Amino acid sequence: xxxxxxxxxxxxxxxxxxxxxxxxxxxxxxxxxxxxxxxxxxxxxxxxxxxxxxxxxxxxxxxxxxxxxxxxxxxxxxxxxxxxxxxxxxxxxxxxxxxxxxxxxxxxxxxxxxxxxxxxxxxxxxxxxxxxxxxxxxxxxxxxxxxxxxxxxxxxxxxxxxxxxxxxxxxxxxxxxxxxxxxxxxxxxxxxxxxxxxxxxxxxxxxxxxxxxxxxxxxxxxxxxxxxxxxxxxxxxxxxxxxxxxxxxxxxxxxxxxxxxxxxxxxxxxxxxxxxxxxxxxxxxxxxxxxxxxxxxxxxxxxxxxxxxxxxxxxxxxxxxxxxxxxxxxxxxxxxxxxxxxxxxxxxxxxxxxxxxxxxxxxxxxxxxxxxxxxxxxxxxxxxxxxxxxxxxxxxxxxxxxxxxxxxxxxxxxxxxxxxxxxxxxxxxxxxxxxxxxxxxxxxxxxxxxxx
Length: 452
Description:
Elements: H1 5-23, E1 32-38, H2 40-43, H3 51-61, E2 65-72, H4 76-89, E3 92-96, H5 107-114, E4 119-121, H6 123-132, E5 147-149, E6 153-155, E7 166-169, E8 172-175, H7 179-194, E9 201-207, H8 215-224, E10 229-234, E11 243-249, H9 252-266, E12 271-272, H10 282-292, H11 297-310, E13 317-320, H12 325-341, E14 348-352, H13 356-360, H14 362-372, E15 375-379, H15 383-393, E16 399-401, H16 406-413, E17 422-423, E18 426-429, H17 437-447
Parallel strand pairs: 1-2, 1-3, 3-8, 13-14, 13-16, 14-15, 16-18
Antiparallel strand pairs: 4-5, 6-7, 7-8, 9-11, 9-12, 10-11, 17-18
Helix pairs in contact: 3-7, 4-5, 11-12
C-alpha cells in the first residue's frame, strides 16, 4: 500500500515557506489603477463587458488596487476628459476598446488630446499591419490602427510575444476591446507592467446563515478594525453555506486578528469549514479529511487504484468530464495521485461540446481546468469517432477514466459500442465503481460540491 502521510509534512513545510515568501514584504500603500471601458456597444448592452473582471482579477494578484471602473461612449471629448482625470488620480490607467479600423474607434485620438499631443502613423505599426496582417492596400481602414499619439510607446511583451503591441503614453495603457484579444494581450503584459512586491492579506469564512444574522457583528468589527475591509456576499446555489465574508487588509497579522474576532463573535454554530481551493495543499487537506472520516477505506482504496493506474503511464490516460459530481471527484483523486507520484505532466480530460452541461456551465469547465491545470479536448456528438481522431494525434492514449459504469457512459453519450468496456479504442475504467451514494455525498461535502 502507498503511504500518504510521509508526503504530508513535506507538502506542509513547502506551503508554509511559500506563505512566508508571499507575506514578507513592506505593508505600504498599494499602487492604484483605474479602468476605462470604452464602447457604445457596452452601454447599449449589445456586448457584455468581461474585460474589467479579467483585468481586476490579474491586477489584484499583482498587488494593484483597482479603485474605479468607468464605462464611457465612443466620444473623443469624453475619452479625453476621462483619461486626463484618471491619469492624475491613479498610478495606472488601463483602457479597453476603441482602437479598431472603424469610424467609432477614437481612443487614440482621445488619448492624444488628453496630453496635448498630435497623431502620426507609427512606422512599426504600419509595418505590422502591412506584413503581419497582410494588408497591402495603403488606403485600407486597417491602417487607422497605426495612427497613434506621437509621444506614445509600444510594448510587445517579452520576446515580442504580441503581434500587435500595447500602446502607452505616460501612465495610460491602451488595450483592445474584443475579449479574445484583450485577454491575450493583458494576460501577457500584466505582470511585466504592473507586478509589485506587495500583496493583499485576504481570508474568508463561510456561514450557514443569512446576512441579517451577522450584519451587526460586521458593523462592530469594521469600526474596531478601520484598516480591515469586510465584504459580505449572499449565496443562493450552494447547499453547504448561505453566505461568505471576506476579510482583507495590507497586513496578514491584522487580517488574522480580525478573522479570529469575527469567528468568536459569530460562534461555531453557523460557521462552515470550507475547502474552496481543494487543490492547494491537497494532500494535507485530504489527510485531515481521512482523520475525521469514520469509514475512509473506500477513499484510500480509490487513491491507491489511481496511483497504480497513473504510475509511469500518465500520458496514456484521459478523463471524461461531464460536469457531474462524480467526474469532479475523479479529477480530484487523479490530481492527488499525480501529486504523490510527483508527475509534472498535466492531467488530460475530454468534454462533450454539445452536451447541455457544456452549453449551460462553461464557467465551471474553465474553473476546473484552471484549478487543476488540465489539458482539455472538446468532443463533438460522435464521441467514438472523435476519440479515434484524438488518438491519431495522441496515439499513446489507451485508458479512458469515467465516473459512471461503461454501459451507462455509452448510453449517456448516445454512442454505439460493441463492447461496453471499450469506446473509440480506449479501455474504459471507472475507479468509483464501488462507491455508494453516501460515499459520494461525504466526499462532495469535503469538496463543497453541490449534491442533491
